[in-house]
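Open question from group meeting: does this chain pack into something compact, or does most of it stay loose? Before anyone orders reagents, we agreed to write out a predicted structure and look at it together. Recording both the input and the output here so the notebook holds the full record.
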Amino acid sequence: MDVIREKLKLLPENPGVYIMLDKYGNVIYVGKARVLKNRVRQYFHNSPKPEKVMKMVENIADFNYIITNSEIDALGLENNLIKKYKPKYNILLKDDKTYPYIKANIKEEFPNFCITRKIKKDGAKYFGPFMGGISCKDILDTLQLTYSVRLCHTQIIEKPKRECLNCHISRCTAPCAHMVTKEEYALQVKNALSFLDGNYREAEKLLTDKMLTAAEGENFELALDYKNKLEMLSKLEAKRITSLSRDIDADIIAYSTNNLYSAVNVLVTRKGIMQGGNSFALDEAHMSDSEALTAFIVQYYSNHEVPSEIIVEDFCEKQLIQNYFKEKFDKCVEVTLAKQGVKSRLLQMAQSNAADFLEKSVDKIKHRDDMTVNACKRLQELLNLTKYPRRMECYDISNISGVDKVGSMVVFVDGEADRNSYRRFKIKTVEGANDFASLQEVLTRRLSKLGTDEEVRFAKPDLIIIDGGKGQLSAVKEIFNSMNIDGIELISLAKREEEVFTLYSEESVKISHRDYALKMLQRIRDEAHRFAITYFRNLHSKRNLESVLTDIEGVGKAKRIALMQKFGTLDKIIGASVEELASAEGIGEKLAVKIKKYFEENL
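Structure tokens returned:
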């Protein structure tokens, strides 16, 4: 505390970000401040504090700070550091995911339409997000069926290409084959964009006519497909809020807390249509409601579309958020503190959803703590680890008879999977099926990043777990010794008896099968195995695919790549019809017949 007292005297009055550290040097909290001196000192005053704030302060052994030009800069830096360190006491989004959009590449001479989850500043038009049981694939299918626009990424060049199957079944006017003029196709695109904007009348009429025609022709399967698409359009239309302007694009965000856990609900409206919503459980934090909601908004929109308007509760830091969006995204976002009218009713709906989610999720959150953070603490006690194993890495090797050898690294932070940090390794130096040598290669390549610039992306783990027994553990210990690795604990988990081997004893540690600590080790071991097997199967499938296709006359490298890109696996290529094969880039009907015949005669 002497170090902290001295540092408190030197705090500046500038805006900035402060970083709280525990006794092991781990970042446990990141915060922003308009005035660093005032904000940081508050934590160490003797004034009464909530229990969860006291819990965090008890774990602070040191702090650092970074001065910024403004509070807005501090807000952005705070978000970046939270993403980087995932501090224990910060608000962290759980179960976050991005939703699909339909992208219209209107900058192209003959625009195509596709599904994406990332919005870029590329001049394209984006429609969505689509949620709540609405399938983007169905919408695209309806779009093509109704307006015959292209969904492929085929490059349109001066020399016309051969028209594909979609052209023959009247689902595309084939601009790549020069079968439609630029002006004619522009009209198709205009109508398709109008459909995506919410004008469904024309599509409904056309689908109804096609459904009736198919039914009259006793093609009931096709008629049912049209009926399903009509029901999908009805779902979309039902989501329109009659009292909202068709031009309104707003997200409605409500926050609920029981002073121990918190939840946020986000409802999404586009063109006056309620697209759906999602609720998020927030990790325990000691922020005020205003700070928590602001932190959520900054984190959420680093990964989601920024709307024209955000409707929030009246304790939100409105001006700060508006300035942040202007500076970060160069977009004027209206932050509305709704108190009456239809926007207030929408906010009440979001508040009800947030409160309901919080009430029904608390038990799950408590259970999650037992399975994650508490399991890490328990593991430290059972194995006498020198420190809390916050970042754990687990390694596994996969191959068949020494062919297509691969290694996997999965990462768990505070007992939960951090999938963005997973890594895969293709074994380069080991001959044959030698798992020990393969493990040594993988660990050498991984540990060589410590102490280099790459350690920013590959942080030093507290604990490394090896899938295997004493032999695998000894093999990795040799690498630790040769590279002078210290400060990292090393264990292995043998699958047969679920025994844990450590470096401190010849005897294994047997943990009860009902203990959350063992269940966590099993989760991380099984995840490493799954990740390795998936990578191995992908490599093995592609290698087999290459070797089979090489034997077919006329199928060169470019055509093999085209088939791989379209079908992905050998089984799907073998099962494809002549028409489906012919639709692949550069194949054509004649070669498709030859490929199909080869499979029938040889496989």
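Observations to bring back to the group:
The two ends are 74 Å apart (CA to CA).
The mean pLDDT is 82.
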